[in-house]
Write a structure and sequence with these properties.
This protein is an alpha+beta fold. It folds into two domains: 73 residues; 292 residues, phage-related protein like fold. 38% of the residues lie in helices and 18% in strands. It is built from 13 helices and 15 strands. The two termini are 50 Å apart.
């Protein structure tokens, strides 16, 4: 059963239950205030499920758009592209005039190498082939930054044959100043998959595609209210109220360097390492902004989940529970029960999860669970595929605190997609330069190639509660002393 279908069935069951409660009322025995409150709570659950369904549909739509872009990227380059390649300083003489048929297996004679970062993207294509294609694209693009030998010409010819050099992505190569080249859609998909695998924010937050640098999303502030009305009396009106969440894309950049000794023989290793390093750097910074951002330039002006919750008063705000002590060892199972209980019912939906550092999970949460008893010996020895605590999955984020401190928020809990938006502008670019200076060192003097990767995104944590009302994201804070 698909995720959306399951959510729709849950929604129907809750609506049936709410309708059943209201059906208990008659002209002689109206619905009691308690029954009306129960029905209202059920409708809040429906609102949460609706949000999850909308998020799932957005994800399906995004996946379909990416699949369409992948198919377009497989088409043969047009005549303009052919002329562009031929004019690359004679690099591409002898280019084959075929239709750009995509390889389905590694070309004959290519030595297979271990691949760690490229994964099966669902197309059934060998990850080693994906790494090889990306490596050949990088080598061909670098061709304009250095004197080109035979292997670089070989890479250009391969990319021409495979339709990997397309003018819709900007100029076909880089230059000595490091001008950027939009990453072909085919590899952009792998970047997205890797960032989601390495990072947490893209998996938990509501991801909003941005077709421009600024996007405004409506946010519902209140719902309709029902009032009892006397005989022949006018009813009381209630209104839905909204405000806006504005996303403004910021540019994130990663700089690295490669050896100048590049050829087709090491294309697989180059492609796998390059995309892995860039994707990890992007994902790590995204998570830093999403959870630890303090609004400064270090985080692109973004304020994260932990920083937002820290604005509340622990022990007063229902959504920020004050722990039993300032040491992790002093935290109790009751503290975590209070956090789980603080989450509003509308946010207790599929996808609600704990987020913490791996060290905190194993040294605090798992120890409390084991101390409670009932765990089988084999489960302790082998662990579980997905950690679960108090019935909810635990998502590990290495940007959360790994050591204890006073007045610290080491763990959060909730439906993050209801309280935070991740604006994804995309436009991933990779640039190469032999003349750049990185870390005060000249690439030309060291016979190296500078690599620059960029992406654009924004994160807004818009609902995290107040000192009187808990939001869809709650947390636990250690004591001050």
């Amino acid at each position: 059963m698909s995720g959306i279908k399951k959510l729709q069935e849950q929604r129907k069951a809750i609506l049936d239950k709410a309708e059943g409660i209201l059906a208990l009322g008659t002209d002689e025995t109206p619905v009691t205030p308690e029954q009306a409150a129960d029905a209202e709570k059920l409708m809040a659950e429906v609102d949460g499920i609706d949000a999850s369904i909308n998020a799932a549909r957005e994800a399906e739509k995004k996946a379909a758009e990416i699949a369409s872009r992948i198919q377009a990227a497989r088409k043969a380059p047009d005549d303009q592209m052919t002329r562009r390649i031929v004019n690359l300083g004679g690099l591409a003489h002898g280019i084959h005039a075929n239709e750009g048929k995509r390889e389905t297996s590694l070309p004959r004679g290519v030595r297979r190498a271990s691949v760690r970062n490229f994964k099966n993207d669902g197309s059934g294509v060998d990850p080693a082939l994906l790494a090889y294609r990306f490596g050949m694209w990088a080598i061909a693009t670098i061709s304009e930054t250095k004197s080109c030998g035979y292997h670089n010409q070989q890479a250009v010819n391969y990319c021409m044959d495979q339709g990997l050099m397309n003018i819709s992505h900007g100029e076909a190569g880089a230059d000595t100043t490091g001008a950027g080249v939009l990453v072909p859609d085919e590899f952009g998909t792998s970047l997205i998959l890797l960032r989601e695998a390495y990072g947490v924010a893209r998996r938990l937050f509501s991801v909003i595609p941005m077709s421009s640098d600024t996007r405004t999303e409506p946010r519902q502030l209140s719902t309709l209210t029902a009032y009892f009305t006397g005989e022949n009396a006018a009813g009381t009106e209630s209104n839905l109220t909204f405000d806006n969440v504005t996303l403004v894309a910021k540019k994130l950049m990663v700089l690295a360097r490669l050896s100048n000794e590049l050829n087709a023989d090491n294309a697989i290793a180059l492609g796998d390492r390059l995309i892995g390093e860039i994707a990890w750097a992007f994902a790590n910074k995204e998570d830093e902004c999403a959870f630890n951002g303090d609004g400064t330039s270090t985080y692109g002006g973004m304020t994260g989940v932990r920083s937002r919750l820290a604005e509340l008063t622990a022990g007063t705000a229902p959504g920020l529970v004050l722990g039993s002590g300032n040491l992790w060892s002093e935290l109790t199972l009751s503290d975590f029960n209070n956090v789980a209980g603080a989450l509003p019912q509308y946010a207790d939906v599929p996808g609600a999860a704990w987020v913490c550092h791996k060290t905190f999970y194993y040294s605090v949460m798992q120890k409390l669970a084991l101390a409670a008893g009932g765990t089988q010996a084999m489960e302790v020895m082998n662990g579980v595929e997905v950690p679960v605590f108090l019935g909810y999955p635990v998502v590990v984020s290495q940007v959360y605190p790994s050591t204890q401190a006073n007045s610290q928020i080491p763990v959060t809990f909730g439906a993050y997609n209801l309280g935070a938006k991740f604006g994804n502008r995309g436009q991933e670019q990779i640039a190469f330069s032999t003349q750049a200076v990185i870390g005060g060192e000249s690439m030309w003097e060291r016979d190296q190639i500078g690599v620059r990767g960029t992406e654009r995104f924004d994160i807004v944590v818009h609902d995290y509660g107040t000192n009187s009302v808990a939001g869809p994201i709650v947390g636990l804070q250690t004591a001050g002393s």
